[in-house]
Amino acid sequence: MLFPLPRCRQTGGTLAAAGALWLALAGPAPARPLPPDETPPTPVGRGGTLPTPTTLSALPNTLADPADLGQHSWLDHDSETLGILYACRAGFLDLVHIRNAADWALNLQARLLRALQRGEPGLDVEGADRGVRLHLTFPAALRPEERETLAPDLALQLARRYAFVLLDWHEVATWYGHGVLPFVSERPSAFSVDDTASHLVGLDLAERALADPQRALLPALTAQLAPLLQELGVQPRQQTTLAMERVRGLWWNPHRSWPANSFITRRQVDSGHPEQTFTAWQVPGLTACAEQPAAQWQVDHLDHWAQGRFADWAQAWLSPGAPEILSASFGEDSPQRRTGRLRVPEDLPAVLDEVRRRMREELGPRADQPD
Q1: Which residues lie below 8 Å from residue 203, measured CB to CB, with a gap of 6+?
Q2: pLDDT at 304
Q3: Where is the signal peptide (predicted)?
């Protein structure tokens, strides 16, 4: 029997016939408060890669060995295994994105929990990208008894939501040409088919680590990663290579290489609605993955956790420091452009719709579809 993923749900019977995989129970895993010496630091990013056999011209890509995942670390990533994996139910995954997402979720959970238990009115967060800030407000303090009973799980669900916002915005900014490498475009990596699924797996990893009663947080992250990937049907390296070759000429262009944006011809963009399910893209025709339905996730459970009381409880604004993105998404005279900020997640769907429109215009009318 599978240990259920907190957000990725497993289906059976009629749902399986519909092709949906649900690997989790309806409710989230309970979170635990962290002692001060376990509070995760502000995440330090890791450099990701692409779901292709090569990256720069003929330079071989980094494919991860699922039998050797290394040790999770906050700051010194030399102990970690990084690279691309293929999982039957989740498609291509990037360990960099999984680990980054887990770090962000745990950092935000600790900070949100502290704010909720102290009765503070909100929280300011500096994103991983330069100039990006997230401002959260709470309409009222929790009741004293709720600060112990509800606060850890509420902090976790809020952390899932807003960590995903920050990660999603990074993909948006990358599409528009923002990046950390001077004079080199990172646009091919924006919403590549491994990104969003990896972020959601990372949120689940964070939730599992918080629910681990036997281990401190870092050992829990290390211990929980392998079984989580196994439940998603992770494959050995040779199957990852085979999966990449099966979508040659469809999801990636073998006549291009990084940093050409046309190198990655298909991108998977989420809806921007945290309550809607996100379905992984599977590579068709892999014998090792025959008849294994695709994984589906929700970003968080706020729409029905605690009877939905907290679905719209927190209010959040993202100040991205990118007026050109706000202009493209909402117009020059829009409130978002004038104030330099947008409501999240409420305004994200419009931003992502514009990204999709531009992708289709640049990469082709099926650029946001798997086939």
Answers
A1: 7, 101, 102, 105, 160, 163, 164, 299
A2: 92
A3: 1-31
In-domain check, residue 331:
yes
Whether the predicted pLDDT of 23 surpasses 80 = no
Top-confidence range, 172-181, 211-220, 243-252:
243-252
- Report the relative pairing of strands 91-94 and 342-343 from DSSP bridges: unpaired
The pair of structure tokens assigned to 23 is 């690997």
Q: Cα angle vertex 66, ends 49, 264, to 5°?
A: 25
Q: Would 369 be classed as within a structural domain?
A: no
Number of compact structural domains in the chain: 1
Q: What is the mean pLDDT of the segment spanning 206-225?
A: 96
Q: Are 344 and 132 in contact (CB under 8 A)?
A: no
324 belongs to a structural domain: yes
Residue 371, domain member (yes or no): no
Residue matched to tokens 């995903």: 164
The DSSP code sequence of 63-84 is B--TT--B---SS-GGGB--SE
**Would you state the pLDDT for residue 36?**
56
Closest among 65, 145, 138 to 315, alpha carbons compared: 138
Chain centroid offset of residue 87 CA: 16
Quote the pLDDT of residue 365: 98
pLDDT in tens, 262-305: 999 999 999 999 999 999 999 999 999 998 999 999 999 999 99
CA distances to 48, 198, 203 from 100, rounded to whole Å, are: 10, 9, 9
Q: Which pLDDT belongs to residue 9?
A: 34
What would the two tokens of residue 198 be?
């990896």
DSSP three-state, residue 160: helix
Q: Kindly give the residue spans of alpha helices, DSSP state H, lying in 30-135.
A: 95-118
d(CA 198, CA 364): 25
294-297, strands of its sheet edge to edge: 20-21, 294-297, 278-279
Q: What is the mean pLDDT of the chain?
A: 90
* Cross-strand bridge partners of residue 8: 297
